[in-house]
Design a protein that fits this description.
Radius of gyration of chain B: 37 Å
Structural class of chain A: mainly alpha
Distance between the termini of chain B: 79 Å
Shape of chain A: globular
CATH architecture of the largest domain in chain A: Orthogonal Bundle
CATH class of the largest domain in chain A: Mainly Alpha
Shape of chain B: rod-shaped
Helix content of chain A: 55-70%
Number of strands of chain B: 3
Largest sheet of chain A: none
Order of helices and strands of chain A: HHHHHHHH
Oligomer: heterodimer
Number of strands of chain A: 0
Order of helices and strands of chain B: HHHEHHHHHHEEHHHHH
Strand content of chain B: under 5%
Structural class of chain B: mainly alpha
Number of helices of chain A: 8
Number of domains of chain A: 2
CATH superfamily of the largest domain in chain A: RNA polymerase sigma factor, region 2, helix turn helix motif
Strand order of the largest sheet of chain B: 1-2-3
Chain lengths: 183, 253
């Protein structure tokens, strides 16, 4: 697979090949971006296998809708938005996108450094689904509250309050972990 | 501050998919590929159409070639026949040769069938090549002279420049003629001169300073007869195409 990648000098070359339905380009795209896209899915979906399924479905959706790409920006960025939408669709279909006030899950005791990405991911996973989704969309993906409200079908106020609560829970968990690590 | 920390750490995070995910992707990709091909069936139709057109064209060429071969033995149209009156040329073929026999005129078919007295025109300038033909055997000459001795009014026309094939016009006075079975006329089979021979001969004439004559070279008659099939109907190009198309349909039925 690695031999195929140099055939596509730029990201847009790769996008053109994908639009043509080139199987080699599709495999090359998977090789290059599956890790990143799976990480996105894992931020939204706690279950690893479900996240992988959503990632693969996202890939298929990208291939199907690639003709809609207008070559104005980054193909990766355009693809990431599709992946996020796919993850939100999964949460919605499994009724995991409810934004009610939920109790945060108790974290399993961890003494690892908070600077590690996997630990941060674990903390995010401990958040209730609604908090987690809003936090991911706002803090990591960079969506505005208006966009989040449209994506999730909630009001901007709800989005803001969900974000605020998510931050509070995360801060609390970070403090707990800090104390734990000090002992 | 906390948002930035999370964003910085998680934005570029990559998680390697499991083998199960890779296998799932491969299977989904295989499902996707046939669908892509089905979306463009026009490509195959266009290829098939191009092949059919090419085959049809080749078949038409083949058919046309057969028609040319078949028509090369057809009777020459009367418009190009040379008419020679027997009275004036009774002695000409046998005694003075082709120079005097060439007192010909071209008459339309209606004139040939209805006009009792064909108008003669002066003989064309003899070509050097024609002199060679004086020595060539002409089985019809003797018979014609016999016929003209019986009826001086008889007229006849030649079908070919070799003067081996002719037709009795008999437009002046009907006369019962007895043609001996052993005559050269009866024995002479219709032996058309090959086109190649005619063309070579014509080249010789032209090389000797004669004016080119497509009729004499056998090219124009061939082109004229090409327009007629065995039934004498006009076989124009559109009908030939139509026939070719029907035969083509029968083959592929």
């Amino acid at each position: 697979m690695a031999r195929i990648l140099p055939l596509f000098k730029t990201e847009h070359d790769l996008a053109r090949a994908i639009i043509r339905g080139d199987g080699n380009a599709q495999r090359a795209f998977y090789e290059k971006y599956s890790g990143k896209f799976l990480a996105i899915c894992c931020r939204y979906i706690k279950d690893r296998m479900a996240a992988e399924d959503v990632m693969v479905e996202s890939m298929m959706r990208i291939f199907e809708k690639s003709s809609q790409f207008d070559f104005q920006g980054s193909f990766e960025g355009w693809s990431k938005r599709l992946v996020v939408n796919q993850a939100l669709g999964y949460l919605r279909s499994n009724k995991m996108l409810e934004t009610g006030i939920e109790e945060a899950h108790q974290a399993s005791g961890s003494t690892e450094s908070l600077l590690e990405a996997e630990d941060l991911l674990r903390l995010i996973h401990e958040l209730p689904s609604g908090y987690r989704t809003v936090f991911n969309l706002y803090a990591i993906e960079g969506y505005s509250h208006a966009e989040i409200a449209e994506l999730m079908g909630i009001s901007e106020g709800t989005s803001k309050s969900q974000l605020s609560r998510a931050r509070a829970v995360l801060q609390e968990r970070l403090n707990e972990l800090q104390l734990t690590s000090n002992f | 501050m906390m948002d930035q920390h999370f964003s910085k750490k998680l934005r570029d995070l990559e998680i390697t998919p499991s083998e199960r995910a890779n296998e799932l992707f491969r299977s989904r990709l295989e499902q996707l590929s046939p669908q892509k091909e089905e979306k463009r069936p026009g490509k195959y139709f266009a290829t098939a159409a191009a092949v059919l057109v090419a085959l049809g064209f080749l078949f038409y060429l083949h058919l046309n070639e057969n028609v040319m071969k078949a028509d090369s033995t057809a009777v020459l149209p009367k418009t190009t026949d040379e008419i020679i009156t027997g009275k004036e040329t009774a002695t000409a073929p046998a005694e003075t040769g082709i120079q005097q026999e060439e007192e010909v005129r071209e008459t339309p078919p209606s004139a040939v069938s209805s006009s009792p007295a064909p108008v003669r025109i002066p003989a064309a300038k003899p070509s050097p090549g024609l002199a060679e033909e004086q020595n060539a055997p002409r089985p019809a000459k003797k018979l014609l002279s016999d016929l003209q001795s019986l009826n001086p009014e008889i007229s006849y026309r030649y079908h070919n420049p070799d003067l081996t094939d002719f037709a009795i016009l008999d437009t002046h006075s009907p006369l019962d003629l007895e043609i001996p079975e052993t005559s050269s006329f009866a024995e002479a089979p219709e032996k058309p001169t090959p086109l190649l021979v005619k063309v070579v001969r014509e080249v010789k004439y032209v090389a000797n300073g004669d004016r080119p004559d497509l009729d004499r070279a056998g090219i124009k008659p061939a082109a004229t007869t090409l327009a007629h099939n065995q039934n004498g109907l006009l076989a124009n190009e559109s009908r030939q195409i139509k026939e070719g198309f029907h035969k083509f349909k029968e083959i592929f039925r």
